[in-house]
Specification:
Helices cover about 10% and strands about 20% of the residues. It has about 425 residues and is mostly beta strands. The strands form 9 sheets. It has an 11-stranded mixed sheet, with no helix packed on it. It has a 3-stranded mixed sheet with strand order 1-2-4, with no helix packed on it.
Length: about 425
């Protein structure tokens, strides 16, 4: 045992496989314990004069033999049975690594080991202006997180607890937030924003915004906005669609310029265009059509009459050939109840227990009106191209009647 020029106490073990079991540590000097392939501990300040130290069988410093220092160093472990060169610093409170003004602190890992961190409360590390603080794991996929101003900059993905939570995208101006979001986006796509687990997971289009679990997960279209749980996840090649609400727009595949707003609001088939459905479980079954509410709705209204465009400057081929009594005499007014459940099955609308009360109420109402197929037959029998009958546009669609369209024939009948 010798003292060197720097007044450090040195223990050298050249031929033994284990360290001595008793050492003396004299502060403020440095203790250097060296062996082939072993450890080097230096410049460790300890309060007091001389303290006995105990090393256990694994070469760790026995923390019980150290002086009580709040937040101080308890042990340094360089036991290396697997040859990986691991070093553990263990503190009773916290451990601070710092340098003087103008100096630099570097923490690095050789080869592919990387640098990681973990904590106890799972909170996200934040930059305070002078240091990065927090308790959760923050990992960059192999590249350095660089602080610049108020930002942490990286060209790679950011992982939290081993799951990719934020990535810059493989295409121009795209960003993904959530596990699996946009993982299959291809080069050449532009300006996509995918937020949520699996959002846009197989999407390949451009200028899309998908927010929600699995939203737009296979879309190859452009300029689509899908917001909500699995919204638009049936869309493959449709463009310019806007779907808001859980499960909205799920049937759409190649249709474009469609709008569905509300829980399960949807289009009746996968290739419609310019179709709009608004409301809980509202379904529009034809292109260039608008549906408000579902089959349980009993009233739609407001505080003013519905106004149609009626400007002579924008009407062509005007003729006074509306049939009066000839058409009205063929109509058969009836009373009826709606078969709401049958209608829902026809259009493919799934109902829940919460819908039952509304359905029962709707089916109990006695309505007055006409049957669309009867009106169609009456008009065709006199060669009248009557616009008041809406014919089905698909196998999921149904007949409709526009009762306001009967007014011109009624006026002509009175005039007669």
């Amino acid at each position: 045992m010798t003292f060197n020029e720097q007044y450090a106490m040195t223990v050298i073990v050249n031929s033994q496989n284990t360290l001595p079991t008793q050492l003396l540590w004299s502060a403020p000097y440095a203790l250097n314990s060296q062996r082939a392939g072993g450890i080097s501990v230096s410049s460790v300040p300890v309060n007091g004069d001389i303290f006995p130290m105990q090393l256990d069988a694994e070469g760790k410093i026995d923390a019980s033999m150290l002086p009580s220092v709040s937040g101080g160093l308890q042990s340094i472990n360089n036991v290396d049975p697997d040859g990986l060169g691991n070093i553990d610093l263990i503190g009773s409170g916290g451990i601070t690594i710092s340098s003087g003004p103008g100096n630099e602190v570097t923490i690095s890992s050789i080869n592919t080991g990387g640098i990681g961190g973990s904590g106890t409360f799972g909170t996200t590390p934040i930059w305070t202006g002078t240091s990065l603080q927090g308790n959760s794991l923050l990992t960059d996929n192999g590249t350095t997180l660089a602080y610049s101003g108020a930002n942490i900059n990286t060209d790679s993905a950011i992982q939290i607890n081993g799951i990719t939570e934020l990535s810059p995208g493989r295409s121009t101006s795209s960003i993904y937030v959530g596990p699996g979001a946009g993982v299959a986006e291809v080069a050449g796509s532009i300006s996509n924003t995918f937020v949520g687990s699996g959002a846009g997971v197989r999407a390949t289009g451009s200028y899309n915004t998908f927010v929600g679990l699995s939203a737009g997960n296979q879309s190859s279209g452009d300029f689509n906005t899908f917001v909500g749980l699995t919204v638009g996840n049936g869309n493959t090649a449709g463009n310019y669609n806007t779907f808001y609400g859980g499960y909205a727009g799920e049937t759409n595949a190649s249709g474009s310029n469609n709008t569905a707003i509300g829980y399960s609001a949807d289009v009746g088939s996968g290739a419609l265009g310019n179709a709009t459905a608004i409301g809980n479980q509202a379904v529009v079954s034809a292109s260039n059509a608008v549906r408000i509410g579902n089959s349980s709705v009993t009233s739609i209204g407001g505080y003013a009459n519905w106004s149609n465009l009626s400007d002579g400057r924008f009407k062509k081929n005007i003729q006074s050939n509306v049939p009066g009594l000839a058409f009205i005499r063929l109509l058969t007014p009836v009373t009826y109840n709606m078969d709401v459940r049958g209608l829902n099955r026809h259009i493919g609308l799934k109902t829940s227990d919460a819908d039952k009360a509304g359905i029962v109420n709707k089916e109990s109402i006695v309505y007055s009106g006409f049957v669309a197929q009867d009106v169609e037959t009456a008009a065709e029998s006199i060669g009248y191209d009557f616009d008041g009958v809406g014919k089905p546009q698909s196998d999921k669609d149904h007949y409709t009647l526009a009762y306001a369209s009967f007014v011109p024939s009624l006026v002509k009948s009175v005039q007669s």
